[in-house]
Design a protein that fits this description.
Elements: E1 12-14, E2 21-23, H1 30-45, E3 49-51, E4 58-60, H2 71-84, H3 88-91, H4 93-108, H5 112-122, E5 140-143, E6 150-154, H6 156-164, H7 169-182
Antiparallel strand pairs: 1-2, 3-4, 5-6
Length: about 190
């Protein structure tokens, strides 16, 4: 068609990074794309050259906090940090448990005092099966999925069962009827 615009973006061209001839837009491979983009960023922002904290290799990074040159060095770096600073779970188990409980309570929007009131109300047992569990941590916070309101504390089995029934009371009644009348275990 006369005057029609022809898309020649996939014409034969040379890779900006390595010069290899190919049919693509700008770069011949993902590696060339990464190197080319990094070169462009270095040219635009004048990225500082850094030395890898693990192998000492000089590299350019566009991340402020990055201190390693590759994924392998990054894994080794994290491993070193883990060894240098033992986890809070090992150092102060009481504080770790308190922080863990606080994160869980923040998720449901209740305070430690409200949680302790629920525990005292339940008597440290599941509200459905009355199982004591192994510890106070064994009780899970049950909540309504539509409103987000906390209903009480349940053991893992009861909480999971309610979840499988999608918090639908009529399904639970049907399941109880089935167990009582249609499917007795003798």
């Amino acid at each position: 068609m006369p005057g029609a615009k022809i898309d020649n973006s996939y014409a034969e061209r040379a890779c900006r990074t390595c010069g290899k001839v190919f049919y693509c837009k700008v770069y011949c491979s993902r590696e060339c794309f990464r190197q080319g983009r990094l070169k462009e960023l270095r040219d635009k922002k004048a990225l500082p050259e850094r030395n890898c904290a693990i192998c000492g290799l000089a590299y350019h990074s566009n991340f402020k906090q990055k201190s390693t040159c590759s994924l392998l060095c990054s894994k080794l770096f994290k491993e070193r940090l883990r060894k240098a600073k033992p986890p809070l779970k090992d150092v102060d188990p009481e504080r770790y448990a308190r922080n863990r409980l606080q994160r869980k309570l923040n998720k449901y929007g209740i305070t430690i005092e409200a949680h302790n009131a629920l525990v005292a109300k339940n008597g440290y047992v599941c509200a459905i099966c009355k199982d004591r569990g192994k510890s106070e941590e064994a009780l899970h916070i049950d909540h309504c999925h539509s409103s987000g309101k906390v209903r009480g504390l349940l053991c893992k089995r009861c909480n999971t069962a309610l979840g499988y029934f999608d918090d639908r009371a009529e399904l639970l009644r049907e399941a109880a009827n089935y167990l009582e009348h249609d499917g007795p275990c003798k």
